[in-house]
Specification:
Layout lengths: L21 H6 L6 H8 L6 H4 L10 E4 L7 E4 L2 E2 L1 H5 L4 H4 L3 E6 L6 E5 H17 L8 E3 L6 H12 L3 E3 L6 H11 L3 E5 L1 E4 L2 E4 L1 H10 L6 E5 L17 E3 H7 L10 E2 L3 E7 L7 E6 L1 H13 L8 E4 L6 H14 L2 E5 L10 H9 L3 E4 L1 H10 L2 H4 L7 E5 L5 H11 L5 E5 L33 E4 L13 E6 L9 E2 L3 H8 L16 E9 L5 E6 L3 E4 L2 E4 H9 L4 E11 L3 E10 L7 H14 L8 E4 L13 H8 L14 H11 L2
Parallel strand pairs: 4-17, 6-7, 6-8, 7-14, 8-11, 11-12, 16-17, 16-18, 18-19, 19-20, 29-30
Antiparallel strand pairs: 1-2, 3-13, 4-5, 9-10, 14-15, 15-23, 21-22, 22-24, 24-25, 26-27, 28-29
The structure holds 5'-O-[(S)-ethoxy(hydroxy)phosphoryl]adenosine.
The site of 5'-O-[(S)-ethoxy(hydroxy)phosphoryl]adenosine has 23 residues, from helix 12, strand 20, strand 24 and strand 25.
């Protein structure tokens, strides 16, 4: 939590409730309200229902071993393979049904990948990985964009029991290098390039730089080609560790690789995410609990059925894509749409044009995207003939106005909407309504998922009364199968980040261990949770998590910068954007040139998506008497709010000066 303590203003305006449409309820995967009671009364055994949605090589002997909190074990003794569950087990019934329909930057570039195709490709790629020496438990770092190569590579890793660590393609070379080092990967998988707004991006260059910056020695880089052959702008020199995937696939043509039986607790993947320190954390997810949890929530929350066409318009490079494009939907045997480029390419109706073309039934996106569609206007939607049964939002709070627009113009007032609250760490949804069982309330995530026990705690570490309507710290009191196992290679950090604040860390009784989400929330009298946003030094820019410390350290890399602090400014479109307050070294003048260097440094250290919205040069930063920067005040300034109490500052005039500089008198 930030030094200043949480700044909570729960300005609750009561919203109307919306009934799920009768047609929806009539066909929903879960309509029995007893599910909640069943999970409460029979915790944790009820989670067996989730595990039973999968095919196991060996059944578990114990659902939850909580004898060593917070290192919980799920489905102990069970064995399974995730790629088998996502592919092989569907072949009898639907081998020639599409698993993915992929569309490239040009609408006429399409690929339909059936379950049989996926089976063939994943077997061959698994043989390629083995061929370059990848063994069970080796972490393979991937840096792939929205191309079929990405799910194919992930599932191939899963097939041979090598955890993958996919780094979102928009991350910079330095960010990739940091993640390669942290995971100590010998093998990296990337692609020559991909398209952004119709322009080819040379993606291999980033990997070249990352290899220079990384400390680990990468033995092999497997290079996919975006087209049939390497793009003409992309070159490989003799001393590069690159090998062309296409050549190796050719060598391993028609090979079959038996899926490796993995212990339920063996890691399936790592996903790095921003926390309260500069160094991103490798959230480690287990095979059995994770796959059970995302399969069940895909079925019950997203209402996915095998015959559906489902489209989650997120990027697989983030957790949403891992859980709800790859693992959950494939495990249920459905058809997913995948798209390479941006929603405005080549026109602002692209998404709806595709929704019509594939007759999408279930649509999944972020509030940032909804706000953007809303800004573009409903005229881009109205031309197209599509009919969603179910829609999801994920990743940020959605304002009731945006929710209502989504409901009316995208859902045509007859689709159900779920607002799903969860995190990279939680693996899958924790707070959201089961769509046929609760009314929708714009701006509110809703009820906890079955068997999940959220609560609101005060800063004193004590629980607030249930349904108190008061804002506080969102915590989860009992373990669930989708939760992260640990922070890769750093159990201590796992405890510090997620457990220490609200747990008795000396206890070995699981009841004394409480998971801190880092979000503020309100539990309303109707039992619905409303999420208010992060309380720690993490911001949410267009649904992407960014640590203020990461940004500050990127800014401080610029030689002329003496000190920097980042504040989150509310933004009508992106939710939040970073404002950077900078003090330059003695004798250095503020200039566009310094400003550009700061921006470049953020882009180099993290990625273009983290670009500061404003850079404000100041003479000093507001500090407490003990010298800590008061980011809260900078946030007040960025958001044009009252400064409040400044008496604890070493020099109260500093904040006032900055305020005047930013807003005038
Ligand atoms: C925020 C994304 C409000 C929250 C799945 C959380 C949300 C962070 C919601 C995790 C929601 C996610 N309403 N806020 N429905 N869903 N958040 O790890 O602050 O990228 O802590 O996982 O996003 O972001 P992450």
């Amino acid at each position: 939590m930030s030094d200043e303590g949480p700044e909570l203003e729960a300005q609750l305006t009561e919203q109307d409730y919306f009934r799920p449409p009768t047609d929806f309820v009539g066909q929903a995967n879960v309509t029995d309200p007893d599910i909640y009671e069943r999970f409460d009364e029979n915790y944790p055994e009820a989670f067996e229902e989730y595990a039973e949605l999968l095919d196991w090589d060996e059944r578990w002997d114990q659902v939850l071993d909580d004898s060593n909190p917070p290192f919980y074990e799920w489905f102990v003794g069970g064995e399974l393979n995730a790629s088998y569950n996502c592919i092989d087990r569907h072949l009898d019934e639907r081998k020639n049904q599409a698993a993915f329909i992929w569309e490239g930057t040009d609408a006429d570039e399409r690929e339909t990948i059936t379950y049989q195709d996926l089976y063939n490709r994943v077997n061959e790629m698994a043989a390629v990985l083995r061929g370059v020496g990848v063994e069970e438990d080796d972490v393979v770092t991937c840096h792939l964009p929205m191309l079929p190569a990405l799910p194919v590579t992930m599932l191939s890793c899963a097939r041979i029991g090598a955890p993958h660590s996919e780094v979102f393609a928009g991350f910079s070379a330095q960010a990739l290098a940091d993640r390669i080092d942290d995971a100590d990967s010998d093998v990296v998988v990337t692609v020559d390039g991909y398209y952004r707004r119709g322009e080819f991006l040379n993606h291999k260059e980033k990997c070249d730089e990352a290899l220079e910056q990384a400390e680990s020695d990468v033995d092999t880089v497997l290079l996919w080609s975006r087209h049939d052959e390497l793009h003409e702008d992309v070159e490989i020199s003799d001393d590069d560790p690159y090998v062309l995937v296409d050549d190796l696939l050719h060598e391993h043509e028609r090979e079959r690789v038996e899926p490796v039986s993995r212990d339920a607790e063996d890691p399936l993947f790592l996903m790095y995410t921003s926390g309260t320190t500069g160094q991103p954390k490798g959230c480690q997810h287990r095979t059995g609990g994770y796959l059970s949890y995302v399969t069940a929530t895909s079925k019950y929350v997203l209402d996915i059925k095998p015959e559906d066409t489902y489209w989650c318009a997120a990027d697989i490079g983030w957790i949403t894509g891992h859980s709800y494009i790859v693992y959950g939907p494939l495990s249920l045997g459905t058809t997913s749409v995948m798209y390479e480029d941006t929603p405005d390419h080549p026109h602002k109706g692209r998404i709806w044009e595709m929704a019509e073309r594939y007759d999408v039934d279930i649509f999944h996106t972020s509030p940032t995207a909804v706000r953007m569609f809303m800004k573009w206007g409903e005229e881009y939607v109205e031309d197209y003939d599509f009919d969603f049964r179910h829609m999801t939002t994920v990743g940020e709070p959605i304002q009731p106005e945006a929710w209502l627009w989504y409901y009316k113009y995208i859902g045509d007032e007859d689709a159900v909407i779920v607002d799903t609250w969860w995190q990279t760490e939680t693996g899958g949804h924790l707070i959201t309504n089961l769509p046929a069982l609760a009314d929708m309330k714009p701006g509110s995530a809703g009820k906890p998922c079955p068997g999940v026990q959220p609560a609101i705690y005060g800063d004193d570490g004590e629980p607030l009364e249930a349904a108190s309507g008061k804002a506080g710290n969102l915590v989860i009191e009992k373990p669930w199968p989708g939760m992260l196992q640990t922070v890769y290679g750093n159990d201590e950090r796992f405890i510090d980040e997620y457990w220490r604040d609200f747990s008795d860390t000396d206890s070995d009784d699981a009841e004394d261990w409480v998971y801190k989400a880092g979000d503020g929330a309100v539990h309303g009298q109707d039992g619905y949770f409303r999420i208010l946003g992060r309380l720690d030094d993490v911001m949410n820019v267009a649904g992407h998590r960014l640590g203020t410390m990461e940004l500050e350290s990127a800014v401080s890399e610029v030689q002329d910068v003496a000190e920097a602090a980042v504040a989150a400014r509310e933004d009508a479109e992106k939710g939040e954007v970073p404002d950077v307050y900078v003090v330059l070294r003695e004798g250095i003048e503020a200039s566009d040139e310094v400003r550009d260097r700061i921006i470049t440094s953020v882009e180099d250290e993290i990625g273009k998506f983290a670009r500061p919205a404003n850079i404000i040069f100041c003479d000093d930063l507001p500090k407490t008497r003990s010298g800590k920067i008061m980011r809260r005040l900078l946030e007040n300034i960025s958001n044009d709010e009252d400064l409040g109490d400044t008496t604890t500052l070493r020099d109260p005039s500093v904040a006032e000066q900055i305020r005047e500089q930013v807003h005038g008198d």
